[in-house]
Specification:
Length: about 350
């Protein structure tokens, strides 16, 4: 009873704010962008700037997430995953935005042992939730963060939403009419004529069904072929994603045996990344189709391989001197670049020590 009262009271407080953000999405985006820029002005400016940076970074991203969830509920944007799955993704997104803040706070409170204890707890928590998405909800490629920031420009006005829903209903009706003539086998993709679509013996046409079907059925068959894949391919994609998901735990385990800034954890993490991406590339070469979001995430992971030059021990032995030389050359040879390169050069060792010791990205 008490919880219901508290819940209703919170809804009354939030409702005016939700109406405002739904009526002013452009202004809201500008305010959010300003808030997200604040952490970059605090880097290295005062004592405990790292803690202030992470606090502002976490708060700014959590505000964006909160506003997106409110706008989705207000606009009644349909979510493509179940309620349990959406809770997992919300928790994962919150943890990804706040994990560095927890680690830095634990280091200040309890030292190195407390920091690594928090790191282990956070990585185990993230791994378990991601494995649930992969194996329970069959998500072939998990996103980072799982809930991406909402594209405010794609939110339609109420009248446009009604037109869009009407278009969806018309498309569904056309597809239903097409399915009366035939259906598509899931594994082989073969089009089979249904009994209703056969017609009488006097008017029956003995042409292949695909040439006589309406476009709605052809589009449906194309979508089915594009999104479908054979069971072995699905298992290989899930294997690749499982390897990527458990990579931080392999890294932590290897580092506990060999110590920090050693080659075995670096090589193990790189090998897992390359193996995971190689499996995905092989399946794509076998005509397994990925969605636009999945392709974007795979592209992000390939670019993330460049970050290995900023991870110890490779950074300590090879890239640190070369990066500093490049930044120094730019600041002396190119006018006005020193205002950008000098802060990067001064703060890069701190960033490398704070953000590039883990392999969870």
């Amino acid at each position: 009873m008490v919880l219901d009262v508290v819940h209703s009271s919170m809804l009354k407080i939030i409702e005016p704010y939700r109406k405002w953000i739904m009526e002013n999405p452009q202004l809201l985006s500008e305010v959010e962008s300003t808030i997200q820029c604040l952490p970059y002005f605090t880097a290295g400016r005062f004592n405990n700037s790292t803690l202030a940076w992470e606090l502002l970074y976490a708060l700014s991203n959590l505000i964006v997430l909160f506003n997106d969830l409110l706008m989705c509920s207000g606009k009644r944007v349909h979510v493509k995953f179940s309620r349990f799955e959406s809770k997992i993704k919300v928790w994962l997104t919150v943890v990804e935005y706040t994990e560095a803040l927890f680690e830095i706070s634990a280091k200040k409170l309890w030292g190195q042992s407390g920091k690594w204890a928090i790191i282990a707890i956070v990585q185990i928590f993230k791994t378990v939730l991601r494995l649930l998405l992969v194996h329970l909800h069959k998500e072939r490629v998990t996103k980072s963060p799982p809930i991406q920031p909402l594209d405010r420009e794609k939110l339609k006005e109420p009248g446009q939403e009604q037109e869009q829903e009407q278009g969806h209903r018309e498309s569904a009706a056309a597809a239903a009419a097409g399915r009366q003539q035939g259906f598509i086998l899931k594994r082989s993709g073969t089009i089979v004529r249904s009994v209703r679509g056969a017609g009488s013996p006097y008017t029956r046409v003995w042409e292949p069904l695909s040439s006589g079907l309406p476009l709605a059925v052809d589009a449906a068959s194309h979508e089915s072929r594009a999104n479908g894949s054979s069971p072995p391919s699905e298992r290989n994609l899930i294997l690749a994603e499982s390897l990527y998901v458990v990579k931080p735990l392999f890294h932590l385990g290897c580092m506990s045996l060999t110590g920090e800034k050693r080659w075995p954890p670096w090589l193990l993490s790189l090998a897992i990344d390359l193996l995971s991406l190689k499996i995905v590339s092989l399946e794509v070469a076998r005509n397994v189709s990925l969605s636009k979001a999945e392709k974007k995430e795979i592209f992000r992971r390939r670019l993330a391989l460049l970050l290995y030059i900023l991870k110890s021990p490779f950074y300590d032995k090879y890239s640190s001197v070369r990066i500093e030389t490049i930044l120094t050359t730019l600041s002396t040879k190119v006018p006005l670049t020193k205002f950008v390169t000098d802060p990067i050069k001064n703060y890069l060792p701190h960033w490398q020590n704070t953000y590039f010791y883990m392999w969870s990205s």
